[in-house]
Amino acid sequence: xxxxxxxxxMNGNGVxxxxxxxxxxxxxxxxxxKVVHGNSILHVNVxxxxxxxxxxxxxxxxxxxxxxxxxxxxxxIRAIVDGMKLTPNPDKPMIALSIGDPTVFGNLPTDDSVxxxxxxxxxxxxxxxxxxxxxxxxxxxAVANFYSCTEAPLEAExxxxxxxxxxxxxxxxxVLCNPGDNILVPCPGFSLYKTLAVSMGIEVxxxxxxxxxxxxxxxxxxxSLIDERTSCMIVTNPSNPCGSVFSKEHLQKILKVASKxxxxxxxxxxxxxxxxxxVDSPSMATLSSDVPILSCGGLAKRWxxxxxxxxxxxxxxxxxVFGTEIxxxxxxxxxxxxxxxxxxxxxxxxxxxxxxxxxxxxxxSFLKSNSELCFNELSIVPGLTPVMPSGAMYLMxxxxxxxxxxxxxDVDFTEKLVTxxxxxxxxxxxxxxxxYFRVVVTVPEELMIEAxxxxxxxxxxxxxxxxxxxxxxxx
Length: 475
Known about the structure:
globular, Aspartate Aminotransferase, domain 2
């Protein structure tokens, strides 16, 4: 820096000095202003260092546009449902079998012990402030203790608390994938995976589930989709939207594919342990010998409190494949937004330890009974093919569209079902799986019976048998 003269414009006091300023004098002098040197402007910071700046240009008109991420964000369910013309029959009360929220009808309250845990947390006034971004240590330890087992041990450091399972999935995808990568997603599958991935510039590859095999994975198709940019495989078990539960043997086959191609697994296990009696549902981590797994879960479904927004990621990495980098990445991502509600964290240990087993059993018993009722009623309806679930809260029903020429597709079918019968089932096109619809089985039994009766009446009205010529061609 030379010692030529500059015009020093002081910030904040309006003083202008044309005195010769020596760089040594400026340095450390506390000057904070502008220095004009010829046609250039140099800023002077608080310690006297000079640095150049460019003259600011002014926009001529307003131009505020949404980001590429927001433009790329699309929830397939909202995209389809918002476009449907839903005008219920005014002579029939609406029965919504479309929303995966077990609290809607009020017939499935959470247990009193869960409510008491929340009341105690509030009354203690210990949880009104910010929690650590990954959650309170005590709460993380409670989750670790609840899910830890010999086959897949957990410590508090292996648990990250999140704002619902949705944020857990978001963090898991974000830490494992870069723009231009691709992930493997079940089809039919939960629409959030695609919503999140595409918004981040990540390609989604859909691997098929097989309805004729109770929605098992088409393993050959799964493996055919893997390439050098595949960064993650998502496995949903038990399944939304199918209600299926993979056997131990089938999970081991999925893990074998992941191991062969060195792919980590994001295991969406929000419906963990919500399986019907007699069905075995091991977590993926208990079966993995080498594949690292991020297991996402939460309170929402098993404890029937989705609005409490309490989820978690369980980090299973027995061979240290993730090392410190993935863990550090997850911690950094949690620091973007402090997620999990501190009051629910305060109640978490009590919720996990004090909820009676009878509460879980009663919930599962109801879901199984309603599923069997729906399956039995719709199995005898010409043109429909329900697939009996083994867990979760859903049942998928196939539509033989050839027998329903009045409708273009499953969206049109379910739309007209609302118009005529005031029963709303979610078209499975929302799950990338056309010509099916999803039934939520959490409604009261009397409403399930009524809804099945209306669906039967609707199908009987619109069903058309195949013509003789069509039968001849099929033979």
